[in-house]
Amino acid sequence: MLQTPATFTPLIRPQEHDRPLTFVFHRGELLLRNTVLGLPELADLAGLALPAERVHPLGEMAGRYYQAVWLDEPLLPGPEFSYHSLRSLFSVVDDGFLGIAGRAYQILEWARTHRYCGACATPLQLLEGERCLRCPQCCHSAYPRISPAMMVLVRKGDQVLLAMHTNSPYKRYTALAGFLEAGESVEEAIHREVYEEVGLRVHNLQYFGSQSWPFPHSLMIAYTADYLDGEIRVDATEIAEARWFGPGDEWPETPVKVSIAAKLIDAHRPA
């Protein structure tokens, strides 16, 4: 599953290191050496003139220091490098590497999209020792954006409810999901989203797990719930199709294995 490795130590302050590994992003795509799908070394990046103010510390792992930087143009150190979307790397590179890359991308998108104060338009300044951009004029603070989203697998006896989301980039069946609204708990969001999306009421909510999902800055919070009442009635603006799947049914294409959705479904798939 896509997550930061347990051996990775996050850092906020820049570190002096003679062999840093750098995540270079342009518009959500990561610069990699094509032959091994690995990060460029410092010597590879010497000709790109990386803006120092755009370089952000990430952390350390296995004796290597990791940092990240974003570019306005898809600059290349040489023909052996190219840019890759994170989704294209699913099941191609190590999940732990993808977890760190996802962390890097979220930090860089925060920095790229918060260069100016949202209240008075003054250029923001990075605070020392904190992942925060502060306005020197009005003191407005901007922290990395995290958007919590609930996910729930509804169970009905030996069946589970799977749905195809209308706006999903891939036409796969998965658990129901939706973003929390202001002032709402995760449990309240589950009850609201399930009723809005498929017309069902649920109970016996049980927490399953969570996962950072860097597309672009979601935090997926997964639950199971038991069916209470109602008939499936989809909101076509959100759900293309929803149905119960039980033992003996032909199983549809489900989410990629790096997602907590796959872990949630696999853990409760009817035998």
Strand content bin: 25-35%
Mean of all residue-level pLDDT scores: 95
Largest sheet: 6 strands, mixed
Helicity, as a percent range: 10-25%
Instruction: Specify the overall morphology.
Output: globular
Q: Order of strands side by side in the largest beta sheet?
A: 1-4-5-2-3-6
Q: Please mark out the parts with pLDDT under 50 across 5 or more consecutive residues, or reply none.
A: none
Supply Rg: 21 Å
Oligomerization: single chain
- Sequence of secondary-structure elements: EEEEEEHEEEEEEHEEEH
Structural class: alpha+beta
The count of helical stretches stands at 3
First and last CA, distance: 22 Å
Q: How many beta-strand elements?
A: 15
Characteristic key phrases:
271 residues, alpha+beta, six-stranded mixed beta sheet, 34% strand, globular
Structure description:
By secondary structure, this protein is of the alpha+beta class. Helices cover 15% and strands 34% of the residues. The chain contains three helices and 15 strands. The strands form three sheets. The protein has a six-stranded mixed sheet with strand order 1-4-5-2-3-6, covered by helices on one side. Strand 7 and strand 8 form a beta hairpin. The two termini are 22 Å apart. The model has no long low-confidence stretch (mean pLDDT 95).
